[in-house]
Amino acid sequence: MMPDMTPPAHPRHSRPLGADSFARPADAVARDLLGTWLVVPGPRGRQERHLVCETEAYLGGHDLACHGSKGMTKRNATMFGPAGHWYVYLCYGMHWMLNIVTGPVGVPAAVLIRGVGDHVGPGRLTKALGIDGSLDGQAATRKGGLWFEASGIRVPPQLIERTPRIGVGYAGAWAEKPLRFVVDPRRLPTITLPGREPS
Question: Which of 24, 66, 143, 178 could crosslink 162 through cysteines, CB 3.0-4.6 Å?
């Protein structure tokens, strides 16, 4: 297994992504989250940083693969709220799915986090990082206990693979939309960062 990369910048110089980063269309957010850090509090107050390498966008009520396509329910109400909050739900009664809400209030759009560092697969990711439904509706901030930070990595388009989303065959033509974004994290250290030589 490949260990998570060492942050390019000292963590003390990193800041959480603000709500404005998520108040945009879900597909733009999904692409831009590649190469950022998902930050999780670790033992004894230490923080663990995991590089985001796989996401999926769910665009709103018109997207038939989206949970909000049939209107608001108790389960999906968080999706209709403000951007920058976590939408966490239980899939098949077994696996927690971690999503970040995007776009304007009232539009049920979100990005599913499918892979970070060594943890590929949304259910494996949440199990490994100890994420569960208690985060649903929480802001993606330090105070909320789980957040994103910029890593300084700019992922060029040629390194991003776009494919149809996984497990949404029920969504008709929407099942074929290329709204899954993947980058091989092993290639990211080769990117030149500001003020750094390629590694």
Answer: 178
How many domains, in total, are found in the chain?
1
Q: What is the residue range of 56's domain?
A: 11-190
The first and second tokens of residue 168, run together, are 């949404």
CATH of the domain at 101: 3.10.300.10
Rounded to a whole number of angstroms, the CA Rg of the chain reads 16
Give residue 189's pLDDT.
64
Question: Quick check: pTM over 0.70?
Answer: yes
CB 8 within 8 Å of CB 190: no
Q: How many CB atoms lie within 10 A of CB 11?
A: 11
What digits encode the pLDDT tens for the residues 154-197?
A: 899 999 999 999 988 899 899 999 999 999 988 876 554 444 33
CA distance 187 to 37: 16
